[in-house]
Amino acid sequence: MKKVLILTSIKTGSGHRSSSNAIEKKLKDKGFETKQLDVFPLMGRMGNLMENSYIPLTTKSPLVYYFCQRVSEFFPWFIHTQMYYRVRKNLLKEIEEFKPDLIISVQCMFTKSISYLIRKYALNIPFYIGVIDLVDPPSVWRDKKADISFVPTEAIRKDYLRRGFDADKVMVAGFPVRDDINIPKRPKTVTYPIRILMVNTSTNLNKNLKFLSEVMRLDNVSIDFVCGLDEPLHKALLNLQEEGKLKDNVTIHGYVNNMNDYLNNAHIVLTKAGPNVIVEAIRSCTVIVVTGHIHGQEDNNYRYVVDHGCGIKCEDPAKIYDALHELITTSRLQECLDSIYRHDINDGAEFIAEYARKHI
Length: 360
Hints:
By secondary structure, the protein is α/β, with parallel strands linked by helices. The chain is about 45% helix and about 15% strand. Strand 3, helix 6 (about 110-120) and strand 4 (about 125-130) form a beta-alpha-beta unit.
């Protein structure tokens, strides 16, 4: 049985783990033995600090996080060098123990450092990169020495080719999506009450609360707010609920394992511009309202939503009521629902797994 080692991260948001889970599931379906590996802990105390700092920095110190992102964007060689020297010893141990026939990375911090390690120690193991950014992927993703870079869109492939990548090393795979996110057999139709799903609309606690306050002003809607791993937000919303400050049509959830059910049920999802939620919403034919983004990481993802007619952008809580009111009281909502149904984005997990089956 062929073995595949999947390099990922667990505490840097849910996107990496969601994508690696999707790829792992498809690989197992095709007969591979797999192992997911959170690479940051292999770096020791520094790696744990980096991974554990992700959510605090993005939610409480976004300017510090933005500065770190800019450093990695303009000096990727520095990042890759640090990653290589800090991860080398323990990753070599993992490789020796598992003996993979293929290594796949869905974590942008572990791209060039990994391919260099493979060459340096003459490991003779193919190395694939699964890019999980929708628009303008950061430079740390780019590695011309990787055997294959799987990218989600043709626009990103063209950008790679302009930067000198070999055409046969960049493939449009689509985006790795969980099995339980299925495309409906027909477009959703507008029915009342309008079902609104809110998924971490911002990295800022107060901004999240303001968004909900404004959305509650709408008539004839039901609201589900999923907080995910944001425990301070979950606690704050539950406190408001206990104090009777939330309407009866609002339901608060923490981390959920059945996001597919919430997306399938919703007409509209309000969310920051994380690529996983965007793609999952599109595949479930749910209109997207982009309400925020992580600076330096998700700046342009809203363009994918707007340019494909899948929704709108409104990052100002003071304007969200008017934006939603116009959307749901005109034909715009049904037009977006129809447009999303016509939009096609491949399941990148299936594409990557099938390519591996044929070539490994």
